[in-house]
Structure formats: structure tokens, C-alpha cells
């Protein structure tokens, strides 16, 4: 008959109860060493992934620079393969805020080929410089930011809609505020925009992409930024072309105070 501790065969206890303190310390020591080694391996893999993930983006920027320097048409007429590998500068993109899964997705996109960028988006405040490609499919947005279908193309007058992943290139939009400067470079030159509105809307609210009184740039990403799963809202940063925004503001001041219109 069992009595909880002893049987007819002798002492009954929990597994490992007979292990010496020294043996337990040895087991814990090896467990800690293995955990440390595994963490170190993951850190190395992640660092290599981050380094590789920026290569295609830098290549796209280099392609754009080559097109810009050559006036665009001369490169095509010379028969240069714009999708060919290019020598790259050291990486300059800050991936510190990127989600790990997004970095992995970016790495997978390295094997794909894309045409030359439509332009380059630069926001100095958040250390962002990224090529703009045509389209907003997952592969494109893993590689760059994308022009939203139906909106104005970079370099033209209208409302230019650009989308990016909230856990990738557009993570830093959370730190952009009214008054910040955004630059958009195309083969026609560089346009400077000033942020005049930041808002959160529903995914179905496409009014933010409609033309405005002045040439505009609208940046779109999912919100909340750290939401797990499919984000339920959209984070919108709207900016107006600097020189025309000032003229519009001056006109509004004149309407409010007609005396300002008198020479």
C-alpha cells in the first residue's frame, strides 16, 4: 500500500530530489550558456538582415541619381539595364524602429527587380530618404514607398498620395508635426512641402486624397503604429507646396482683412 512517501520498494519522492546542489548548479550554468549563445546568434542574424535589407533601397536611390544626372532619356537610349546590380554606398537608412518581420519581408524583396523610382522622398527630421515606386502592393512597400493609384504623379500639380508601412519606412511619421518640411525630388527638380495637417481617419475615408486648393503631398500609413494585426485606422500627414502654400495663406489673410490688399 502507498503512503505518499514510501512504498514497499523504499523512498518515493519527486524527480531530481536526489540530485546534489553541485549538479543543479552545473545544469543551470549550461542552461545560461546555451541561452546566451542562442541570443548572440539571433543578434548576429538580425544585424546581417538589417544590413542586407537596405541594399535594394540604396540601389533604387542610385538609379534615380543616375537618371537625374543624365537627364533621364540618355540612359535609356544608351540601353543601360536599369535593373542591373549597382555598386552601393554604405547603408545610411535608420532601421532602429523597424519591426523585425518587416525587415525580413524587405530582405525577401531583395531578389525582385523594380524599375527606376518616380522620385525620392526625404524628411530630414526623421532621417528618412526613400525611393518612390509606382503601386502599393506588399512587395513594393517592403522595398520602398509607393504612389497610390489615381493620385497625381510626383513632379506634377495636384495631390500626390504616397503610402508606406507603419512598421517600415513610415514608422517615423509618428514624430512628424505641423510645420515640418518634406522634400520630393524628381527629374524635374526638388519641391519642398510644409506639413499643415496630421489626422487619423477610417480606411474608407479617401477624401484625404482629393485635390486641394494648392499642390499637395499626402502620406498614408496604417494606425495605430504598434497595433498587432490589421490596423483599423489610417494615419494621414498632409503637406502643401511651400511657395504656393504661403501665397494661399496670404490670400486668406487678405480676405479676413481687406485693408491688406490696398497698396
Biggest pleated-sheet summary:
8 strands, mixed, barrel
Average pLDDT for all residues: 76
Q: Report the CATH architecture.
A: Beta Barrel
CATH topology: Sortase, Chain: A
Structural class: alpha+beta
Q: What is the terminal separation in angstroms?
A: 112 Å
Tell me roughly what share of residues is in helical segments: 25-40%
General form? elongated
Number of DSSP strand runs: 10
Supply the CATH superfamily name. Sortase
Count of helix runs:
6
Which strands sit side by side, in order, in the main sheet?
Answer: 3-4-5-6-9-10-8-7
CATH class: Mainly Beta
Question: How are the SSEs ordered, and which strands pair?
Answer:
Layout: E1 6-7, E2 10-11, H1 21-53, H2 55-70, H3 73-77, H4 100-109, E3 119-123, E4 128-134, H5 138-143, E5 145-147, E6 159-163, E7 181-186, E8 189-201, E9 216-223, E10 233-241, H6 242-256
Question: Mind explaining what this structure looks like?
Answer:
The protein is α+β, with helices and mostly antiparallel strands and 263 residues long. It has a single domain (54-261), classed as Sortase, Chain: A (Beta Barrel), CATH 2.40.260.10. Helices cover 32% and strands 23% of the residues. The protein contains six helices and ten strands. The strands form two sheets. The chain has an eight-stranded mixed β-barrel. A hairpin with a 2-residue loop joins strand 1 and strand 2. The N and C termini lie far apart (112 Å).
Amino acid at each position: 500500500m502507498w503512503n505518499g512517501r514510501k512504498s514497499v520498494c523504499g523512498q518515493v519522492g519527486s524527480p531530481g530530489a536526489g540530485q546534489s546542489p553541485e549538479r543543479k548548479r552545473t545544469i543551470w550554468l549550461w542552461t545560461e550558456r546555451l541561452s546566451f549563445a542562442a541570443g548572440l546568434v539571433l543578434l548576429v542574424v538580425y544585424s546581417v538582415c538589417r544590413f542586407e535589407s537596405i541594399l535594394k533601397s540604396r540601389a533604387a536611390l542610385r538609379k534615380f541619381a543616375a537618371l537625374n544626372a543624365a537627364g533621364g532619356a540618355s540612359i535609356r537610349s544608351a540601353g543601360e539595364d536599369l535593373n542591373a546590380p549597382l555598386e552601393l554606398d554604405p547603408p545610411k537608412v535608420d532601421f532602429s524602429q523597424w519591426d523585425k518581420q518587416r525587415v525580413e519581408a524587405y530582405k525577401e524583396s531583395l531578389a525582385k527587380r523594380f524599375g527606376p523610382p518616380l522620385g525620392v522622398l526625404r524628411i530630414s527630421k526623421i532621417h528618412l530618404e526613400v525611393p518612390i515606386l509606382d503601386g502599393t502592393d506588399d512587395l513594393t512597400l517592403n522595398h520602398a514607398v509607393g504612389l497610390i493609384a489615381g493620385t497625381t504623379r510626383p513632379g506634377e500639380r495636384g495631390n500626390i498620395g504616397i503610402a508606406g508601412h507603419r512598421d517600415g519606412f513610415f514608422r517615423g511619421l509618428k514624430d512628424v508635426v505641423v510645420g515640418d518640411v518634406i522634400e520630393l525630388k524628381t527629374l524635374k527638380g526638388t519641391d519642398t512641402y510644409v506639413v499643415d495637417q496630421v489626422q487619423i481617419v477610417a480606411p474608407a475615408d479617401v477624401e484625404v486624397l482629393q485635390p486641394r486648393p494648392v499642390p499637395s503631398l499626402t502620406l498614408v500609413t496604417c494606425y495605430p503604429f504598434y497595433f498587432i494585426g490589421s490596423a483599423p485606422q489610417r494615419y494621414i500627414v498632409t503637406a502643401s507646396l511651400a511657395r504656393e502654400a504661403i501665397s494661399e495663406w496670404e490670400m486668406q489673410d487678405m480676405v479676413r482683412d481687406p485693408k491688406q490688399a490696398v497698396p
